[in-house]
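Escalation from tier 1.

The customer reports that the assembly of two entities below gives different structure tokens on two consecutive runs. Tier 1 could not reproduce it. I'm attaching the input and our single run for tier 2 to review.
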Amino acid sequence: MDPETLLQLAGSSLRLATPLLLACLAGLWSERAGIFDIGLEGKMLAAAFTAGAFAAVTGSAWLGLLGGIGASLLLGLLHGFASITLRGNQIISGVAINFLASGLTALVGQNWFHQGGLTPQLSGAARFEPITLPFAAALSQVPVLGPVYAGLVSDHNILLYLALAAVPLTWWALHRTRFGLRLRAVGENPAAVDTAGISVTRLRYGAALIAGLLCGIAGAYLSTAMAAGFTREMTAGKGFIALAALVFAKWRPWPALGACLLFGLLEAIGIRYQTITLLGWTVPVQLMQALPYILTVVILAGFVGRAVPPRAGGRPYVKER
Amino acid sequence: MTVGTDTRGAGKPDLAIELAGVSKSFGPVEANRDIHLAVRRGTIHGIVGENGAGKSTLMSILYGFYQADAGEIRVDGRPTPIPDSRAAIAAGIGMVHQHFMLVEPFSVLENVVLGAEDGRLLRPSLARARDALRRLERDYELEVDPDAIVGDLSVGAQQRVEILKALYREARILILDEPTGVLTPAEADHLFRVLAALRDEGKTIILITHKLREIMAITDAVSVMRRGEIVRTLPTAETSPAELAELMVGRRVLLRVDKAPARPGEVVIEARRLSLTDAGGARRLRDVSFEVRAGEILGIAGVAGNGQSELLEILAGIRPATSGAALLRGRPLDLSRATNGADRRARGIAHVPEDRHRRGLVMPFAAWENACLGYQDEARFAARFGLLDRDAIRAAARADIARFDIRPPSCDLKAANFSGGNQQKIVIAREMDREPDVLLVGQPTRGVDIGAIEFIHRQIVTLRDRGKAIILVSVELDEIQALSDRILVMFDGAVSGTRRAEETDERELGLLMAGIDPKAKGAA
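Tier 1 run:
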């Protein structure tokens, strides 16, 4: 494999990993606060549609992003209301959100644009275009560093850089701030937080909103940066793969980056090498494309060693008598 | 005679806490009724009462977990409303809960700081807490490693973290809810030294317990609660355990169990050289042999963890033995498998497990469902088509409730909603119902209040008098001595001695529990 192909593969992995990473971090915020979030998929899908629609109508990718975040936040609040305020079952609430998003995006899309559920093709300012970082041209003559900088580091859209920045930011906020300490505590033992005189409800809503924000960016990335418009079910299970990555990463931000890059790489390989011949056997293209999903199953089946979820995860907080 | 009364404020200046007419109801249940309580500053004030007497509710009101329906709380003489925990902390009240309010994966430092951070960033808070802990450790013997993960600490150390949390928040009044229930005797002694040191520094301590020995040992004054009311507050020096026990239950308690001498019949159950080696290769039981006759109670004493639990579980068929045999009326029991509970019941061996929450009851099931568990396949509960006869089961449950005075007398209530004593009565009623030939009882009165203890003890003795063989495992030596006809003491998985109950005393049993047999001639 020549260096250029390797660079292309790496760049493609990075681009494919970005929505996973954003969704994975969204799940991380939510679950570290003790709320299971099966609805990542639905929030992302709703955001992808809204972002695509807003961008098509207004011609601005940024307004699209805002719309996407808004839609995702609404669903996040709905999940919060069901699971925090009403103390409902978080899994069921998440599943409901997925159905709601899947149905609504198709219905509204068809009635609005009459293109079989698609949003109109985006171009120009309605899309997030790759940004060429400074010195890319100047450095291009430097061996190794030049091509890597120009081909891998530079030339991505702003949302991808945002996703990468979210990793250290998440780590820092969780481990170095008062909010993070309290949020992690509420996911482990909400009674301890309550008796310390802090509102469990407010912390958990905070987490649900951060998850909504990140899912919103992930959805907008799909329809206005990676693709040029919304297509039906375009999340294609990415929300669930993100959940698997979250388990794989044991609910920690840096390993989440690693896990999402691994899934991104598998997807990139599946797209690029439609036929691979191993020891004289041609691996079917379907198998290659199924790789990320197969890995998901393997991870969730517990082949990654003991993954201890936040202890209060999935349980509504009820003051004991 | 009262000293010069302060007429300006409502409270008196030397009182840290004053409750005036505090009441609290949960639906129709009056948990606290017209409570008047005065706790002097710089003292240890005990609050005793049976389970369900309202102690915990009262303290939860003081800590802002619940709001009182009526009455006034005064802290340091000033009326202080306490709507939530934050207000309690601000008023200088700290609480050490019975079930610790700790975040286990966090370090000690993080737990101490949680909720009392100085600013948005953690680093300065953690540094300040580290200094504070060093100071508190020096002043009060509260040593813990600030960087240790709380989940890895011993229960005693976790409790110290809870106390440190309260002190870090500058609590002047410390409430401890049943603090010694989970501690070893050495840890409890340590705790009492800490509490004494805190009192000497001028802190006020409220100690909730149902152990009268602790009240006598450490408190300056004691209030007795019964059925939601404070029936009496006394200086500890002027009372006795017997008086307190009487106040708690409202009638005289039999501290000794009334029982006639045993009239043992033929041997019913017999253990021969039972041994157990666990998965890790440790020998948990070493050649344990004994026999129990009809109409006899064999008490098995020992410090927890010396093989008593394993022995009971092997006999009950929920744990296999490595070697040895057990005979019921001369016929062997199958000790090879761990799933012989049903077989044992069919042969007339009933079992009241040590851990009733895990093994004795299904907590979310109703009392009537729990009343048939393990016996659900018996003909008397069977309806047609392989279904259960609910009416028959409910009738049996109602009979149990009446016979064992289980309160509240509702067979539709979930097991989880009964008090500890009544839960245990449900289990014991179920197991005694079938008139078993052998009753295995583990820790029959753990977490059970005094009134129920007396009742349960009487039931066990009555069963003996009907000619049944009873094996009683308990870590409470008082209980072993009060009930047993013979006492077998275990140490390190082996029998360190067997004595007739009337021929031994606490001192001798204590030595045997430490593995020393005072009667054995210094051989080897």
